[in-house]
Automatic annotation (TrEMBL):
Name recorded for this polypeptide: Photosystem II cytochrome PsbV2
Domain Cytochrome c: start-end pairs: 76-167
Any single GO BP term: photosynthesis
Record Gene3D superfamilies: Cytochrome c-like domain
Organism of this sequence: Allocoleopsis franciscana PCC 7113
Membrane topology: Peripheral membrane protein
Length: 178
């Protein structure tokens, strides 16, 4: 009987030491971190600007062409498009304005009035692949030509989706009143 009473504290001590070991604590931290990471992946990957100003909390459909076809884009897609825009377009298009030619902004009505229209995903992508002047009469030297090898189709569509959604929803986008 005395042997059993001595063994119980020893087992409890070994168990307590194991529960508070570095390995156990590290595993617990990783498990808790994983739960938080997995619980809201869409919110974590979606840029706060996209959620707040572009009002994208779940996938949205944007005009793919002028024929009524649409394509869904998630908040993550638009966030990636925003990153591309910031990396490659922001120097000339702050807030949807066009610094080299302030009369031609990235506002929705301006995009729609271009020749050919640029108020849909394909229109913006076609412009980026082969930049033309606003009236479509000549090559534009203001924007660089974006080749498929530089930005693949899937990525450039996300960039176009960001521009289109910003033109639809962002306060002050493409206007002189930011």
């Amino acid at each position: 009987m005395l042997t059993r009473s001595i063994q119980i504290p020893q087992v409890l001590h070994a168990l307590r030491r194991q529960l508070f070991s570095v390995h156990f604590l590290l595993a617990a931290v990783i498990a808790v971190w994983g739960v938080f990471l997995v619980s809201s992946p869409a919110q974590a990957a979606t840029d706060s600007y996209v959620r707040r100003y572009l009002d994208v909390k779940e996938p949205i459909s944007l005009a793919l062409d002028g024929k009524g076809q649409t394509k869904p884009f998630s908040g993550e897609d638009l966030s990636f498009g925003k990153e591309l825009f910031e990396a490659h377009c922001l120097n000339c298009h702050v807030g949807g304005a066009t610094l080299p030619d302030p009369t031609v902004s990235l506002a929705l009505d301006t995009l729609a009035g271009a020749t050919p229209p640029r108020d849909n995903i394909n229109g913006i992508v076609n412009f980026l692949r082969e930049p033309m002047t606003y009236d479509g009469s000549d090559l534009s030297f203001w924007c660089r030509q974006v080749s498929e090898s530089w930005i693949p189709q899937e990525q450039i569509e996300k960039l176009a989706a960001f521009v289109l959604r910003a033109a639809q929803k962002a306060p002050g986008w493409g206007t002189s009143n930011f």
